[in-house]
Amino acid sequence: xxxxxxxxxxxxxxxxxxxxxxxxxxxxxxxxxxxxxxxxxxxxxxxxxxxxxxxxxxxxxxxxxxxxxxxxxxxxxxxxxxxxxxxxxxxxxxxxxxxxxxxxxxxxxxxxxxxxxxxxxxxxxxxxxxxxxxxxxxxxxxxxxxxxxxxxxxxxxxxxxxxxxxxxxxxxxxxxxxxxxxxxxxxxxxxxxxxxxxxxxxxxxxxxx
Length: 209
Description:
alpha+beta, five-stranded mixed beta barrel, 9 helices
Protein backbone atom coordinates (compact mmCIF):
# COMPACT_ATOMS: atom_id res chain seq x y z
CA UNK A 1 0.00 0.00 0.00
CA UNK A 2 1.28 3.41 -0.90
CA UNK A 3 1.59 6.03 1.85
CA UNK A 4 -0.23 9.11 0.52
CA UNK A 5 -0.54 11.19 3.69
CA UNK A 6 1.34 11.34 6.99
CA UNK A 7 0.66 13.27 10.16
CA UNK A 8 3.18 13.41 12.96
CA UNK A 9 5.52 15.49 15.08
CA UNK A 10 8.08 17.46 13.08
CA UNK A 11 11.33 17.01 14.99
CA UNK A 12 14.07 17.94 12.49
CA UNK A 13 14.40 20.12 9.38
CA UNK A 14 17.47 19.91 7.14
CA UNK A 15 18.33 21.42 3.77
CA UNK A 16 16.38 18.84 1.78
CA UNK A 17 14.36 16.73 4.19
CA UNK A 18 12.46 16.61 7.46
CA UNK A 19 12.05 14.00 10.18
CA UNK A 20 8.45 13.16 11.05
CA UNK A 21 7.81 11.04 14.14
CA UNK A 22 4.64 9.00 14.66
CA UNK A 23 3.73 5.76 16.44
CA UNK A 24 7.25 5.43 17.83
CA UNK A 25 8.88 5.59 14.40
CA UNK A 26 10.87 8.41 12.77
CA UNK A 27 10.47 8.90 9.00
CA UNK A 28 12.82 10.89 6.78
CA UNK A 29 10.73 12.74 4.19
CA UNK A 30 12.28 14.63 1.27
CA UNK A 31 10.61 18.01 0.70
CA UNK A 32 10.80 20.74 -1.99
CA UNK A 33 12.94 23.69 -0.92
CA UNK A 34 10.13 26.26 -1.14
CA UNK A 35 8.44 24.54 1.81
CA UNK A 36 11.45 24.59 4.14
CA UNK A 37 10.79 27.99 5.72
CA UNK A 38 7.20 27.11 6.61
CA UNK A 39 8.20 23.69 7.89
CA UNK A 40 11.03 25.15 9.99
CA UNK A 41 8.49 27.45 11.63
CA UNK A 42 6.42 24.36 12.52
CA UNK A 43 9.30 22.42 14.08
CA UNK A 44 8.20 20.76 17.31
CA UNK A 45 4.55 20.76 16.29
CA UNK A 46 2.24 18.41 14.44
CA UNK A 47 2.19 18.64 10.65
CA UNK A 48 0.48 16.77 7.82
CA UNK A 49 2.37 16.00 4.61
CA UNK A 50 0.92 14.66 1.37
CA UNK A 51 3.39 12.02 0.28
CA UNK A 52 4.73 10.07 -2.66
CA UNK A 53 6.92 6.98 -2.52
CA UNK A 54 9.66 6.08 -4.95
CA UNK A 55 12.75 3.91 -5.11
CA UNK A 56 16.18 5.47 -5.53
CA UNK A 57 19.09 3.59 -7.02
CA UNK A 58 19.71 0.96 -9.67
CA UNK A 59 17.35 -1.95 -10.14
CA UNK A 60 19.99 -3.69 -12.25
CA UNK A 61 22.45 -3.52 -9.40
CA UNK A 62 19.89 -4.64 -6.85
CA UNK A 63 20.47 -1.46 -4.84
CA UNK A 64 17.10 0.25 -4.43
CA UNK A 65 16.34 2.46 -1.44
CA UNK A 66 12.71 3.40 -0.65
CA UNK A 67 12.15 7.15 -0.23
CA UNK A 68 9.25 9.35 0.83
CA UNK A 69 8.57 12.79 -0.65
CA UNK A 70 6.27 15.16 1.22
CA UNK A 71 4.26 18.23 0.21
CA UNK A 72 2.28 20.76 2.22
CA UNK A 73 -0.73 20.47 -0.11
CA UNK A 74 -2.18 17.65 -2.19
CA UNK A 75 -2.25 20.00 -5.20
CA UNK A 76 1.54 20.36 -4.96
CA UNK A 77 1.91 16.59 -5.02
CA UNK A 78 -0.25 16.41 -8.14
CA UNK A 79 1.80 19.13 -9.84
CA UNK A 80 5.04 17.34 -8.91
CA UNK A 81 3.83 14.14 -10.60
CA UNK A 82 3.20 16.12 -13.79
CA UNK A 83 6.57 17.87 -13.48
CA UNK A 84 8.29 14.48 -13.35
CA UNK A 85 6.88 13.55 -16.77
CA UNK A 86 9.17 16.11 -18.46
CA UNK A 87 12.02 14.38 -20.24
CA UNK A 88 15.29 14.83 -18.37
CA UNK A 89 13.80 15.70 -14.97
CA UNK A 90 14.29 13.13 -12.23
CA UNK A 91 13.01 13.19 -8.67
CA UNK A 92 16.01 14.91 -7.07
CA UNK A 93 16.26 17.50 -9.84
CA UNK A 94 12.54 18.21 -9.59
CA UNK A 95 12.74 18.69 -5.83
CA UNK A 96 15.62 21.17 -6.18
CA UNK A 97 13.77 23.03 -8.90
CA UNK A 98 10.74 23.60 -6.66
CA UNK A 99 12.36 26.59 -4.96
CA UNK A 100 9.12 28.47 -5.66
CA UNK A 101 5.55 27.31 -4.91
CA UNK A 102 4.04 24.96 -7.47
CA UNK A 103 1.36 27.53 -8.27
CA UNK A 104 4.00 30.08 -9.26
CA UNK A 105 5.89 27.61 -11.44
CA UNK A 106 2.64 26.48 -13.08
CA UNK A 107 1.74 30.11 -13.81
CA UNK A 108 5.15 30.64 -15.44
CA UNK A 109 4.61 27.53 -17.57
CA UNK A 110 1.15 28.63 -18.70
CA UNK A 111 2.45 32.12 -19.57
CA UNK A 112 5.49 30.64 -21.40
CA UNK A 113 7.86 32.58 -19.11
CA UNK A 114 11.03 30.63 -19.92
CA UNK A 115 13.22 33.28 -18.26
CA UNK A 116 11.51 32.79 -14.89
CA UNK A 117 11.70 29.00 -15.15
CA UNK A 118 15.37 29.15 -16.15
CA UNK A 119 16.16 30.87 -12.83
CA UNK A 120 14.98 27.84 -10.85
CA UNK A 121 17.87 25.78 -9.39
CA UNK A 122 19.17 23.28 -11.93
CA UNK A 123 16.88 24.52 -14.70
CA UNK A 124 18.60 26.37 -17.53
CA UNK A 125 17.11 27.99 -20.61
CA UNK A 126 16.97 24.79 -22.66
CA UNK A 127 15.25 22.80 -19.91
CA UNK A 128 12.84 25.71 -19.26
CA UNK A 129 11.74 25.63 -22.89
CA UNK A 130 11.39 21.83 -22.69
CA UNK A 131 9.14 22.17 -19.63
CA UNK A 132 6.91 24.70 -21.41
CA UNK A 133 6.73 22.55 -24.55
CA UNK A 134 5.62 19.47 -22.59
CA UNK A 135 3.44 20.95 -19.84
CA UNK A 136 1.80 24.11 -21.17
CA UNK A 137 -1.95 23.53 -21.20
CA UNK A 138 -1.65 20.69 -18.68
CA UNK A 139 -1.02 22.67 -15.49
CA UNK A 140 -3.57 25.48 -15.78
CA UNK A 141 -5.54 24.20 -12.79
CA UNK A 142 -2.40 24.56 -10.64
CA UNK A 143 -1.64 28.12 -11.76
CA UNK A 144 -3.05 30.99 -9.74
CA UNK A 145 -3.35 34.55 -10.98
CA UNK A 146 -0.06 36.30 -10.38
CA UNK A 147 -1.54 38.73 -7.85
CA UNK A 148 -2.80 35.76 -5.83
CA UNK A 149 0.53 33.97 -5.69
CA UNK A 150 2.31 33.65 -2.34
CA UNK A 151 5.10 36.20 -1.98
CA UNK A 152 8.14 36.53 0.22
CA UNK A 153 6.19 38.96 2.42
CA UNK A 154 4.06 36.08 3.72
CA UNK A 155 7.07 33.97 4.67
CA UNK A 156 9.88 36.32 5.72
CA UNK A 157 10.43 39.12 8.20
CA UNK A 158 11.02 42.66 6.91
CA UNK A 159 14.77 42.28 7.58
CA UNK A 160 14.84 39.02 5.64
CA UNK A 161 12.93 40.60 2.75
CA UNK A 162 15.43 43.48 2.70
CA UNK A 163 18.27 40.96 2.55
CA UNK A 164 16.60 39.15 -0.35
CA UNK A 165 16.28 42.44 -2.23
CA UNK A 166 19.98 43.16 -1.61
CA UNK A 167 20.97 39.72 -2.87
CA UNK A 168 18.88 40.05 -6.03
CA UNK A 169 20.27 43.55 -6.63
CA UNK A 170 23.73 41.98 -6.54
CA UNK A 171 22.74 39.57 -9.29
CA UNK A 172 21.55 36.51 -7.37
CA UNK A 173 18.39 34.73 -8.51
CA UNK A 174 15.37 35.46 -6.32
CA UNK A 175 14.54 31.79 -5.79
CA UNK A 176 18.15 31.17 -4.68
CA UNK A 177 18.14 34.22 -2.40
CA UNK A 178 14.88 33.16 -0.74
CA UNK A 179 16.16 29.61 -0.26
CA UNK A 180 19.46 30.75 1.30
CA UNK A 181 17.73 33.17 3.67
CA UNK A 182 15.20 30.50 4.67
CA UNK A 183 18.04 28.08 5.39
CA UNK A 184 19.92 30.74 7.36
CA UNK A 185 16.77 31.20 9.44
CA UNK A 186 16.81 27.50 10.29
CA UNK A 187 20.43 27.66 11.41
CA UNK A 188 20.48 30.97 13.27
CA UNK A 189 17.85 32.52 15.52
CA UNK A 190 19.85 35.57 16.60
CA UNK A 191 20.15 37.51 13.30
CA UNK A 192 18.67 40.99 13.66
CA UNK A 193 19.39 43.08 10.54
CA UNK A 194 19.45 42.79 6.75
CA UNK A 195 23.25 42.99 6.44
CA UNK A 196 23.65 40.06 8.82
CA UNK A 197 21.04 38.09 6.89
CA UNK A 198 22.97 38.73 3.66
CA UNK A 199 26.19 37.45 5.25
CA UNK A 200 24.40 34.40 6.62
CA UNK A 201 22.83 33.71 3.22
CA UNK A 202 26.24 33.77 1.56
CA UNK A 203 27.57 31.37 4.20
CA UNK A 204 24.74 29.02 3.26
CA UNK A 205 25.55 29.48 -0.43
CA UNK A 206 29.18 28.60 0.29
CA UNK A 207 28.15 25.46 2.14
CA UNK A 208 28.91 26.72 5.64
CA UNK A 209 26.46 26.71 8.56
